[in-house]
Design brief:
single chain, alpha/beta, Rossmann fold, DNA polymerase, domain 1, 2 domains, 10 helices, 6 strands, globular, disordered C terminus
């Protein structure tokens, strides 16, 4: 069965997707750019390297791009982070996975400075085995770089890893990285947008409630159990 879980944070174990979108809108406004929340929100789940060119036409490696990324982080950490809450059942799910003796590796496109703070919001910082963030890769989701790096941290084969995420970008990254993928609706996407996931649940608590019927309890693809 699966040996490792690649765990997304934003929208998956912390209800933070709207906050990220608002932080981007606020940061862009400080530079004189008016971009609507509705335009930004569907892109949350990508890293800054993907977001800035799409919403502002700014390359992230320019002086302006770096300034906007820094401003966005400051706004998020100071104005929005203090009010964030975990998604329903977030800590209970991570505890469950730990008790199942699965290796838990955070796999997120979030900035490294955000990751530890978000893990504290979900109260799971001491439950994860390793962390992979945007600082460890060149390209963010939906490119599979974060997934590949997390698989290395997990110390097992891609087919022995399954990701838990909440965006279409998580689904694409996991599939392109060779890992399984469970999607959660609590990040704000529809089942249609999450097409390609092996299973879709409302939130972490719903996954716990249906754990015995979940992909965690099914034979891996190409395993002897499937051909018996």
């Amino acid at each position: 069965m699966y040996r490792a879980v690649l765990l997304d944070i934003d929208g998956t174990i912390v209800d933070s997707n709207d906050a990220h979108a608002h932080a981007w809108v606020d940061a862009l406004e400080t530079s004189g750019r008016r971009v609507s929340f509705e335009r930004v929100r569907p892109l949350i789940g990508m890293g800054s390297d993907k977001m800035l060119p799409r919403i502002a036409g700014v390359h992230p490696d320019t002086d302006e791009g770096r300034a906007l990324i820094t401003r966005r982080l400051e706004i998020f950490m100071n104005q929005y982070l203090p009010d964030l809450e975990p998604t329903r059942g977030a800590r209970a799910l991570v505890e469950w996975l730990r008790d199942e003796r699965l290796t838990i590796v955070v796999a997120t496109s979030a900035d490294p400075a955000e990751v530890h703070a978000l893990l504290r919001v979900a109260d799971v910082a001491k439950l994860v085995d390793a962390i992979t963030s945007s600082g460890d890769v060149e390209r963010s989701k939906p490119d599979p770089d974060v997934v590949h790096a997390a698989i290395v941290r997990a110390g097992c084969e891609a087919r022995e890893c399954i990701m838990i995420g909440d965006t279409p970008y998580d689904v694409d990254a996991a599939r392109r990285g060779g890992a399984g993928i469970i999607a959660l609706r609590c990040g704000g996407w529809s089942d249609r947008a999450l097409d390609g996931a092996q299973a879709i649940y409302e939130d972490p608590q719903d996954l716990i409630d249906q754990y015995l019927l979940s992909p965690f309890k099914r034979p891996l693809p190409n395993s002897p159990a499937l051909s018996s």
